Amino acid sequence: KGLTSADLAKVKNVPAILSDPGGDYQIVAVIEGEEANRKLTSGLQVIGGQRQRLLGLSRQYDQTPAASIQQRELIAGEILKSRNILSRNLQFMTRQYAYSLKFNYRLVPHAASLFLISTGEDGNPSSKNIHDFTDSTSYESFQKMRDDYLLLSVKESKKTVTDPAEDAASAPQEEGQPAPGADSATTPTEDTGAPTTEAASNPEEPAVEPTEEAKGSSPGAVNPTEPSEVALTAEMTALRQRLIESYSYDPLKNHQLNFTKTALYARPGNR
Question: What are 43-71's pLDDT values in tens digits?
Fold first, then answer.
């Protein structure tokens, strides 16, 4: 407590500023420990989900006819409840990480452990620590190499796998069925009067920028990047070998990343 951004960065041995063309990010917190990082990731996801729910409820309220008094009252009650829950969670995030909706954020891993996930003889999943990242540079190098492999994999899959959308587009459509690619969210449905939690994201709302792992359904999960029916090219085989030699990471297997030290950076949101 009481440390300036520069002092915090010096004490925790992390950069005080992240340069970015859209505006520099400044350090606001350093999170240490596996459990603390899991709570941060979970908190960011919860806040994001609650904000989307509130936006959806507000939009539904605005679209409900003024004559539907009872329905509007029900939605208004849900809006008030959601606002109170979001407010409490924001207070917690502010106390813990100086989090505010007025800022955009970026989370940078500085220490992490990579685990190989496999199924034991008893049928239960087991994990084995295969590599430890001790600074942001080593983690970024791993992530870039892994992303390069993924891009090659996707490129190769487009050559060998027929696009399902093309097959569906050429197939005859039954009367009353939506056309392939139609957005089900925009398809008119019967109004049941129940509040909906779906809403398009508001581009003017400050966005949290979590790591790639934080975006998935399971924070830290690293799934195989290679489509099962795609044959490895020479370039993919060489890159896979580099990943195995450098990090004991085989992109054809399941892995999990556990962050143990991350730095949270912020910059004012565009208003």
Answer: 988 998 999 999 999 999 999 999 999 99
Taking the alpha carbons of 233, 236, 240, 242 in that order, is the dihedral positive or negative?
positive
CA distance 244 to 258: 19
Rounded CA-CA distance 269/271 in Å is 6
Q: How many angstroms separate the CA atoms of 56 and 197, rounded?
A: 5
Position of tokens 């606001």? 28
Helix, strand, coil proportions of the chain in percent (round to 5)?
45, 20, 35
Q: How far apart are the first and last CA of the chain?
A: 30
Element (H or E) spanning 156, and its range? helix 136-160
User: Under DSSP, is residue 80 helix (H, G, I), strand (E, B) or coil?
Assistant: helix
Rounded to the nearest integer, the mean pLDDT of the chain is 78
Distance CA 109, CA 262 (A): 4
Q: Strand 208-209 relative to strand 125-133: parallel, antiparallel, unpaired?
A: unpaired
Least-confidence region, from 45-54, 109-118, 161-170, 238-247: 161-170
115: helix, coil or strand? strand
Burial of residue 231, with CB atoms counted within 10 A of its CB: 0-12 exposed, 13-18 middle, 19 or more buried: exposed
The model carries a pTM of 0.64
